[in-house]
Each structure stands twice: as structure tokens, then as C-alpha cells.
Amino acid sequence: MNKQGFFITGTDTGVGKTWATVAMMKRLIRQGRRVAGMKPVAAGCEWLQGQWKNEDALLIQRHASVDLPYHQVNPYAYRLPVSPHLASNGAEIDIVLLHKVFTDMKQKADIVLVEGAGGWLSPLSHELDNAGLAKQLGLPVILVVAVRLGCINHGLLSWRAIQASGLDCVGWIAMCIDAEMAFADENIDFLRQRIEAPLLGVLPHDEQADFEQLSYSLQGF
């Protein structure tokens, strides 16, 4: 893949989008690329060093090869661990601001990975969802599928929703979040036959993330 950016979405919240994003960063950096990361909207933040900060956004900031201030990596940070449209207390998102931050990042990096919040149709505000943000930024999409009971339905619905939005789903990543799942390989194979986008990797279950090791489970970009 020779793109300048990707939008990373998932089949739900808590499916491993950040781990997949950081693993992608590691792989791209190993290829000699300058990589920046962005989580435009995040809920469930802690008050650190005079501002609200999100654990996932901090991971993205820490593992990028382009040094960026936190407020650029995560322009909208909300305290409550609920859907951003609720955590924001009704505040809207300035898409012009997000577009400017993304454009600035593109001047400094070869590739910018933008991680959404929640699933593809999860609201970021009362007027904007992840699908709308990806459209505004003009990014091809990578879908992270949580491999657990129900993943076939969730994976296919998400992929079809991305296709219906008119954006290009350029690949998907299987994230094995349930170590005890029966027939995990068979579920992944079923999805591989039906999602008309390449499987970019199967990330194994792990209690502690070894992002460098996870990056070797990815291919295709």
C-alpha cells in the first residue's frame, strides 16, 4: 500500500484498535517510514500535566516516529468513559480544526494513522460519527475485527457499512481478544472468504502488548 494515511476503525469499542494501530506503526517505521498517529476524539481521560489525556492516545503519541504535542494527537479529550457525544456535554466537533491538524501531520510524516473512537457508526458528537470523519479526511479504511463469539456478524456488518459509505476498505486485521474462543481459526477463515478486502494480519491474544512482536504478524502494507 502506498497511501499517506489510513483510518483505523473496529467492530466495536475495546476491540484492540490501538494495539493494531501501534503494531502498524512499528511495521511501517521498520520499513523506514516517518509515521505519525492521531486519535482525534477520545473519552475516558485522566488529568495529567494540566490537561485531559487518554491512555490510547498516549500510546499512539509515544510510539510514533514523528514527535507531536499531545493536543495535536488528541484534539478532543473527554473525562467520562462513555460515548464521546455524551462525554462532550453537547459540544460539537470542529471538523475544520481536525482537518488542519491532519494536514499539518501529513507535512511531517510519510504516513498518518488516524484511530477512530468505538465502531464505524459510533457518534463522536451529535452531528459527526467515525464514518463522517473518515470521509472528511478522505482516508481509506482498515477494519479491526475482534475475534470472539459474534465476530462473523460484527465483521461483515462493519465491512458492509464501510462499503456503503463509499470509502475504500483496504484491509482488515483479526484481533484475537478471547484466548478461550473455540474455532477461532475457522471464524477468521470464514471472514477471509467473505470480506472483499485482504486480511492484513492475525494478532494473537496477549495480556501484555509486545508491539514489536505484534508488528511481525502484519503484512500487506
TrEMBL record:
It is an enzyme of class 6 (ligase). Its cofactor is Mg(2+). The active site is at residue 39. The keyword Ion transport does not apply. InterPro entries: DTB_synth_BioD (IPR004472), P-loop_NTPase (IPR027417). GO terms for biological process: biotin biosynthetic process. Signal peptide: none annotated. Mg(2+) binds at residues 18, 56, 115. Its main location: cytoplasm. ATP binds at residues 56, 115-118, 175-176. It catalyses: (7R,8S)-7,8-diammoniononanoate + CO2 + ATP = (4R,5S)-dethiobiotin + ADP + phosphate + 3 H(+). One of its GO terms (molecular function) is magnesium ion binding. SUPFAM superfamilies: P-loop containing nucleoside triphosphate hydrolases. Catalyzes a mechanistically unusual reaction, the ATP-dependent insertion of CO2 between the N7 and N8 nitrogen atoms of 7,8-diaminopelargonic acid (DAPA, also called 7,8-diammoniononanoate) to form a ureido ring. Homodimer. Belongs to the dethiobiotin synthetase family. This is ATP-dependent dethiobiotin synthetase BioD. The gene is bioD.
